[in-house]
């Protein structure tokens, strides 16, 4: 049996695995495992981690004669043969690397790499995931410097969206070694300090789906938050149906690109805004008409060109509500919804109060008090397993495409560059960090 914190290197070679197995187990025990390992090796799997892809269920009624190691207890692995279980446990290091936010502030002042973080113990309803790629969202950098300490738990593991492999399925529908994508929710970040930017993390089973085989881990990492946001906005809120007309403000953003593709799958006609240099790219996602928002005053342009053929819904990713919503009535059908997903509060308490007053004035004031004669709504995204599976299915059928803007390393230089890129608000696709 390998002691916890065993010196077995990760990843270990096949011969070293067998060497260790022979040292601690009888030939009779090792032979079937060797066959499996050799079979795995043929298919390019030679590490204990990879070996766990081939799950050897213990014969019914057989219990392990040995006292479980600390790590075994921690991870409650009991569905693989005792030998493989030992090998698997030994392949996990005793500690892991995670990026933490320690205090409120810009990333250059508030985040730190912890190289001695414990591997989390399992909890009901959660699985243990070996993270491979984490995709950043604007939410991360925005909340880093805005949410005060009393409203969130510190230290907090950074970011939400991820792609990885199941290490411990914890009696869920997943198997060891399944490739999955999903998120550690923002709520989990706030309340429990749980995020995605670590090597081994606990994720609620309901927030994960199988990774479509036809897309890369980088692409899959970028689906969840932006994809659910677009899906919930168009399907649950705007209730878009075939033949309807939709305006998407911000078609080149990740949410905007997903929204275009989902709307086209629903059979809608899509007009969208983006900067001229990205028009061709945005068109490739299926948009019917593109408006270069840098060359026109968007609300006036829409009124001039679309009043005779208004939209059934406006999906606003950009969030310039004070300027846009009050002028949207001529281009939005009376029963149409103006849905926004982004509100950037200005800095400073005074400015914030003034902004909120103006926002109330344009967005919430009833029509009989002179408010805008159209329905406005702001929504935040909820986790939803069924919708996540729908997004996975669309991606597997090549009806949902994710582009990767750029990829970065897990070290400080890599992560700082990734956050700097996010802050430009110019990314064309997902910004992805590779986890070692
Ligand atoms: N409410 C929620 O639950 C929720 C969930 C997810 C995201 N969000 C919010 O949704 C927004 C978009 O997120 P994302 O991940 O899609 O961002 P993103 O991919 O980083 O968006 C970047 C793109 O936004 C476009 N853009 C910037 N300013 C624009 C403008 N004035 N008009 C039109 N396009 C503009 C740029 O395209 P061009 O090159 O064409 O300018 C840029 O390439 C963020 O504010 C985010 O916080 C909210």
UniProtKB/TrEMBL annotation:
InterPro entries according to UniProt: ADH-like_N (IPR013154), ER (IPR020843), GroES-like_sf (IPR011032), NAD(P)-bd_dom_sf (IPR036291), YIM1/Zinc_Alcohol_DH_Fams (IPR050700)
Superkingdom as given in the UniProt entry: Eukaryota
A Pfam family annotated for this UniProt entry: ADH_zinc_N_2
SMART domains named in the record: PKS_ER
CDD domains linked: MDR1
PANTHER family linked to this entry: ALCOHOL DEHYDROGENASE RELATED, RETICULON-4-INTERACTING PROTEIN 1, MITOCHONDRIAL
Protein name: Zinc-binding oxidoreductase
Organism name: Phaffia rhodozyma
Lineage of the organism: Eukaryota, Fungi, Dikarya, Basidiomycota, Agaricomycotina
């Amino acid at each position: 049996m390998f002691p916890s914190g065993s010196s077995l290197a990760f990843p270990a070679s096949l011969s070293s695995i067998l060497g260790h197995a022979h040292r601690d187990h009888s030939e009779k025990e090792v032979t079937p495992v060797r066959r499996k390992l050799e079979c795995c090796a043929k298919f390019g799997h030679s590490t204990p981690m990879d070996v766990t892809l081939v799950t050897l269920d213990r014969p019914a009624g057989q219990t392990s004669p040995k006292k479980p190691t600390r790590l075994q207890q921690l991870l409650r692995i009991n569905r693989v043969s005792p030998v493989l279980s030992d090998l698997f446990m030994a392949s996990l290091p005793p500690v892991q690397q995670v990026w933490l936010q320690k205090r409120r502030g810009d990333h250059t002042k508030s985040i730190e790499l912890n190289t001695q973080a414990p591997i989390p113990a399992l909890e009901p309803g959660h699985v243990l995931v070996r993270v491979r790629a984490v995709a950043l969202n604007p939410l991360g950098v925005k909340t880093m410097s805005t949410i005060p300490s009393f409203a969130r738990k510190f230290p907090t593991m950074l970011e939400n969206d991820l792609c990885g492999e199941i290490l411990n399925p914890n009696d869920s529908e997943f198997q060891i070694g399944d490739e999955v994508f999903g998120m550690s929710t923002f709520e989990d970040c706030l309340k429990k300090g749980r995020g995605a930017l670590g090597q081994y993390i606990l994720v609620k089973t309901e927030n994960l789906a199988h990774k479509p085989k036809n897309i890369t881990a980088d692409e899959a990492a970028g689906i969840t938050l932006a994809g659910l946001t677009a899906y919930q906005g168009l399907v649950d809120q705007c209730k878009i149906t075939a033949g309807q007309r939709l305006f998407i403000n911000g078609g080149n953003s990740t949410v905007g690109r997903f929204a275009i593709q989902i709307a086209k799958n629903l059979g809608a006609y899509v007009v969208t805004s983006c900067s001229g240099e990205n028009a061709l790219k945005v068109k490739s996602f299926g948009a019917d008409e593109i408006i270069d928002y840098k060359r026109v005053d968007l609300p006036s342009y829409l009124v001039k060109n679309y009043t005779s053929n208004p939209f059934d819904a406006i999906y606003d990713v950009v969030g310039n509500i004070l300027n846009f919503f009050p002028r949207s009535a001529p281009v939005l059908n009376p029963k149409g919804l103006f849905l926004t997903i982004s509100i950037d509060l200005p800095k400073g308490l005074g400015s914030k109060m003034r902004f909120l007053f103006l926002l109330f004035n344009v967005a919430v004031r009833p029509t009989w008090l002179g408010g805008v004669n159209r329905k406005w709504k702001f929504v935040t995204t909820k986790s939803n397993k069924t919708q996540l599976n729908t997004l996975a299915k669309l991606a597997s059928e090549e009806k949902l495409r994710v582009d990767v803007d750029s990829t970065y390393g897990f070290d400080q230089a890599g992560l700082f560059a990734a956050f700097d890129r996010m802050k430009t608000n110019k990314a064309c696709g997902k910004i992805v960090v590779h986890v070692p």
